[in-house]
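Hey team,

Sharing the DUF3307 domain-containing protein run so nobody has to redo it. Sequence (118 residues) first:
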Amino acid sequence: MSILLQSGPLALFFAFAISHALADFPLQGDYLARTKQRREAKNLSEWLISLTAHSLIHAGGVWIVSGSAIIAVAELVLHWLIDLGKGEGLYGYATDQALHLSCKVIFVIVMVKGWLPV
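Structure output:
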C-alpha cells in the first residue's frame, strides 16, 4: 500500500497535483510545449513523439506517486488525449488543467476504494 494512500486521500491528491505541476511546467520545456501541438511541429513524427514524450513524463510522475503501472498507463492515455484536444483548439488552458486534475481525483478514488489489483 502506498505511503501516500495511508496518509489519506487529500495527501494523495496533493501529491498528484504536485507531480502534475512539475511535469507541466519545469519538466516540459519550450520544445515539448511547442511541438506537442500538431500545427507547431515540423512533421507528423515530431508531433507524435513530442506529445507522447510529454505524456510519458506525466505517466512517470503518476507511477511514482501511485506505485501503480496501471494508473500510470491510464495517465499516459488520458493526458495524451486531453492535450490533443487542447492542441486542436477544442478548449483552452483552464479546461485542459481542470480535465487533468479531474483525472487525478479519479485516480485517488480508484486507489482509496482499492479497485485495482495489488
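The mean pLDDT is 95.

Ping me if you want the raw files.
A.
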